[in-house]
Amino acid sequence: MGSLHEIGPGVHAWVQPDGTWWLNNAGAVAGDDGLVVVDTCATERRTRRFLGALAEATGGAPVRVAVNTHQHGDHAYGNSVLPAETVIFGHEAMRAALLVDPIIDGCPPVWEPVPDWGNVTRRPPSVVFRDEVAVYTGARRVEFRHPGYAAHTPGDVVAWLPEERVLFSGDLLFHGLTPLVFMGSLEGALRSLDWLAAFGAERVVPGHGPLTDAAGLPGVLAAHERYYRFVLDVARAGRARGLTPLAAAREADLGEFAGWADAERLVLNLHRAYADAEGAEMDLLAALGDAVAYHGGPLPTSV
Ligand SMILES: [Zn+2]
């Protein structure tokens, strides 16, 4: 149901197995001026559990600052559960997207059961930035950095601890699960892999899936690269044959990716690849409907 891992002195990762739809990772950094929290959770209950575990581990350290790694609800709906005095940071595109997020008001019939949101409301960041900003808690520096282009989403941000060499990647990394880029860019997601590698992180907290480290990261990045190239190949072949994204996905052999959870994201990712190749807008609800069709029914949740 979620557990807190101290991956360095005062550096905490909140990991929610099995990392599938709406089950994200988050974290926090403790310093002399309290906590810097990285992401919240999808629901009130899960965010309260995360914050409760943090309070227990840190003797009730105050949550001074939080940051959202991107706009998606599993990382941001719980913002409204943070203390009122917490200052929330995010990329300006992330703030804009959360303000118009439709799912918090009425979840489309895509997931079943519909996540039990509890009392979450839209609470966007109050401090926004375009490139990067650093915050301190005591002497401890935490950098919030945007890759410079859309990847998982237009407003992706990582949290980087340069002293401790810990990287909170947000959903630029799905460790052992099917990556999702339908609201971002496949080309950007590919590009972001080298950017992530260049940090030289010793510990990495992915947006979903188990923690990894300097030894494990190259394999995780290589798997992402193979998957993104696979999606681009399926899209290229499908478009050449006049197939819809759904038809192209149904014909594709998942190969080594068949073991990854949330395989239906292939359809969503193909919708993005098609839209970008055609210079068209992507129809979000149509894409989600196709993912349900590919899966053969609503996508299971456990939130
Ligand atoms: Zn996401």
Class derived from helix and strand content: alpha/beta
Shape: globular
First and last CA, distance: 9 Å
**What is the quaternary state of this protein?**
single chain
Major sheet characteristics: 7 strands, mixed
Tell me, rounded to a whole number, the average pLDDT: 97
**In total, how many beta strands?**
15
> Share of helix among residues?
25-40%
Q: Rg, please?
A: 18 Å
SSE order, one letter for each helix or strand: EEEEHEHEHEEEEEEHEEHHHHE
Notable characteristics:
binds zinc ion; alpha/beta
Describe the structure.
The chain is an alpha/beta fold. It has helices spanning 44-58, 73-76, 92-99, 186-197, 217-240, 245-251, 265-278, 284-295; strands at residues 3-8, 11-15, 26-31, 34-38, 63-67, 87-91, 111-112, 127-129, 132-137, 140-145, 158-161, 166-174, 203-208, 212-213, 299-300. Strand 11 (158-161) and strand 12 form a beta hairpin. The radius of gyration is 18 Å and the shape is globular. Bound molecules: zinc ion. The site of zinc ion has 4 residues, from loops. Zinc ion (ZN) is lined by residues 70, 72, 152, 171.
Write the layout of secondary structure elements.
Elements: E1 3-8, E2 11-15, E3 26-31, E4 34-38, H1 44-58, E5 63-67, H2 73-76, E6 87-91, H3 92-99, E7 111-112, E8 127-129, E9 132-137, E10 140-145, E11 158-161, E12 166-174, H4 186-197, E13 203-208, E14 212-213, H5 217-240, H6 245-251, H7 265-278, H8 284-295, E15 299-300
Parallel strand pairs: 4-5, 5-6, 6-8, 7-15, 12-13
Antiparallel strand pairs: 1-2, 2-3, 3-4, 9-10, 10-11, 11-12, 13-14
Residues 70, 72, 152, 171 line the site of zinc ion.
